[in-house]
């Protein structure tokens, strides 16, 4: 598998006054897709609550290349671009592409796993998180940290 892919459906509320997709909507779509993927891989919100851990982001950046409009047919492609062997630190990229494969935007997030009881980084990384991220598709330029 090269990446997780999902077709997006824009709503009127996703638009800005210039009638293109507002900048913060991209981040919302990326966050939603990451959670949907983790759910598919068995790392559900229930599992994270039960085991008292969850993802934490250190950086989130979007590079905008082409504007998106309400009627555009857009697909989000998600994959890992960096990861430590124990999955304790990772980077995930989301590419927003038109149906003709034109790259419109790229979100990059850098994160780790947080112990929700201790309120600090989880150590060791929960086994189910290691398993889920090991299945996650990797970018062509993937870097092992």
Written description of the protein model:
One of its GO terms (molecular function) is fatty acyl-CoA hydrolase activity. It comes from Flavobacterium cupreum. It holds the Pfam family 4HBT_2. This protein is of the alpha+beta class and 145 residues long. The chain has one domain: Hotdog Thioesterase (Thiol Ester Dehydrase, Chain A). It has 3 helices and 7 strands. Strands 1, 2, 3, 4, 5, 6 and 7 form a 7-stranded mixed sheet that branches. The longest helix has 18 residues, at 23-40.
Q: How many structural units, i.e. domains?
A: 1
Could you give the order of the helices and strands? EHHEEEEEHE
- CATH homology superfamily: Hotdog Thioesterase
Q: What's the Cα radius of gyration?
A: 16 Å
Q: Write the CATH architecture name.
A: Roll
Counted by DSSP, the helix tally is 3
Return the average pLDDT rounded to an integer: 94
Kindly name the structural category. alpha+beta
Large-scale geometry: globular
Distance between the termini: 21 Å
Q: Show unreliable segments.
A: none
Please give the largest β-sheet.
Answer: 7 strands, mixed
CATH topology: Thiol Ester Dehydrase, Chain A
Helix content: 10-25%
| Proportion of residues in β-strands | 35-45%
According to CATH, what is the class?
Answer: Alpha Beta
In total, how many beta strands? 7
């Amino acid at each position: 598998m090269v990446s997780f892919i999902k077709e997006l459906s824009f709503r009127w509320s996703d638009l800005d006054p210039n009638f293109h997709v507002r900048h913060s909507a991209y981040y919302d779509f990326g966050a939603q897709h990451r959670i949907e993927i983790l759910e598919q891989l068995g790392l559900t919100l229930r599992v994270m609550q039960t085991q008292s851990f969850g993802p934490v982001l250190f950086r989130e950046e979007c590079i905008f290349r082409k504007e998106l409009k309400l009627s555009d047919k857009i697909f989000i492609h998600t994959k890992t671009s960096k990861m430590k062997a124990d999955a304790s630190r990772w980077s995930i990229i989301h590419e927003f592409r038109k149906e003709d494969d034109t790259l419109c935007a790229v979100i990059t997030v850098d994160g780790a796993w947080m112990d929700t009881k201790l309120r600090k980084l989880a150590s060791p990384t929960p086994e189910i998180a290691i398993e889920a991220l090991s299945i996650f598709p990797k970018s062509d330029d993937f870097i092992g940290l």
